[in-house]
Amino acid sequence: MASTIFYLCVTVKSKSKFYFCSHSRLFSSNYSPLTSSSDSLHRYKFGRQLEGKPRRTIRRILTSSVAMFAENPVVSDVIATMLSGGIALSLLRLWEETAKRGLFDQKLNRKLVHVSVGLAFMLCWPMFSSGRQGAIMASLVPAVNIIKMLLLGLGIWKDYATVKSMSRFGDHRELLKGPLYYASTITLAGAIYWRTSPIAIAAICNLCAGDGIADIVGRRFGSHKLPYNRNKSIVGSIAMATAGFLACIGYMHYFSSFGYVQESPKMVLGFLVVSLAASLVESHPLSTELDDNLTVPLASVLVGSFVF
Fold first, then answer.
1. What is the pTM of this model?
2. What is the pLDDT of residues 243-271, one digit of tens each?
3. 142 and which of 43, 186, 267, 293 could share a cystine (Cβ 3.0–4.6 Å)?
């Protein structure tokens, strides 16, 4: 909501002076322009223009104008889209720079992108308006990334830093699988289920936090492999179920504070079931053969449809 982004202090009374505060800067109607800059002179003249009007009228005009701007759902959603897009782009740029400079192992850098971008973007959902319009506007941000993955994966657009930060082996064609499924999951979760559905929370949290942490922990501590899949470790699967579940609980509390979901023991149990199911699916050899960025969200949505 735009009202959470913009703050405007309208009037302040102090010893028969009228002050107007915009962006945390005060000026009064008897401010002296003799020692001020041109910006101060402009504010002085504006204050003099307002001096003759009743203060209640001025307050009503200013507050109603701000309210109309803040409560306009189209303007609010456009601002929210720009802000959330800027946050997502900043994170991507950060991980591109770390990949370019070799600050992390390439696989670790890729998983840091995997964990952070989707979860950070979901934090921005309360900025959007309620209803279908807000859901569609929010989904435009990851939808743009779908187009980007297609262009990069097909070799139409060259961006070595992005390819390196999102691929296992530096091959641009890898972006047509895992990264494309990742962006598609976040887009569809927002557009179809949105912030009022625990299914959206489960799908994104198990994909981002669960699958991402599983790989990081599994590579470091996963010496004991699963009997049915030697490419996966016991500790990695446990880490995935735990991280996915805890992320779901965190976002349940987060969205509940805005009134979007009603947290309950039943919902907590549902998240536990979904996270366990997603972890089992991720550890299956079929997920390795296909792509766990595809199988994990599909399992989360399917199981979530039964338990929620």
1. 0.74
2. 999 999 999 999 999 999 999 999 999 99
3. 186
